């Protein structure tokens, strides 16, 4: 029988609604009581690693989670399920995807409705995640996100709706599998990634979104000595308003890595345009284009790369290489 470890970290899946309709965390996760649901099918054990709403999760918790999963794999567990709040689920999932050298399936899930709401999706998502973690076809696919009958890669999935249970989507590429009545069915292959294990996480890695009329005000407010890196969600295919350029040049002169992604929901950032502030000029200035990741994922990747001691060309290659 497959050994599956469930690690609970909190989020709506662990919360309940009170009499006034407010969703609040309880003293412990109500799903801890459900291991017997899988009796006879899988050997399931569970631990409550944290009980945090996901906006409270930081890279420090992500690292602890990654270390616990590593230990479990060494101890002979066949698959790991993580339950997590959905707000920052994609960031934790991608952090694990980048840092874990796991070959065992690691599957993250959550819920959009708390444990005692009508139509609560937590238990169903948990069951789907356990089935996926126990499936041989889920091995070697990196960290997976299972929600609402779909299987997505940690690399590209994103939360797209504030409340709908069909919130997790993979723009551009789509999900890689679906849940069927008897288990999971994969229909897309993924290219393998090299894991980048880290032992600590650095801070002061920032994320800014570009907008029409953006000037250099926010950029000049960054403290140069302490800033480790910056991701900018640029407009369209990867362009910025020209008023941002002097401040950008200053950051680059201070060897602060600037990573560019697109603020568009679909597509990738590419240095296409030759006008002032266009992608070609940005690339010539030393801005690094990161294709296919959204801003929050690119920030996690930059943080992991910097925490692993990458810099210069090595960091640029690591950041450019999101799709392959
Ligand atoms: N659906 C959820 O889990 C949202 C909640 N605010 C969280 O991320 O913890």
TrEMBL record:
Family matches, as CDD domains: L-asparaginase_II
Single Gene Ontology MF annotation: asparaginase activity
Name under which the protein is recorded: asparaginase
EC numbers for this chain: 3.5.1.1
Annotated GO biological process: asparagine metabolic process
Family indicated by similarity: Belongs to the asparaginase 1 family.
Catalytic reaction(s) noted: L-asparagine + H2O = L-aspartate + NH4(+)
Keywords: Hydrolase
Organism the protein comes from: Loigolactobacillus backii
Entries under InterPro entries matching the protein: AsnASE_II, Asp/glu_Ase-like_sf, Asparaginase/glutaminase-like, Asparaginase/glutaminase_AS1, Asparaginase/glutaminase_AS2, Asparaginase_C, L-asparaginase_C, L-asparaginase_N
Statement: the UniProt record of this protein carries the keyword Transcription: no
Coiled-coil stretches: none
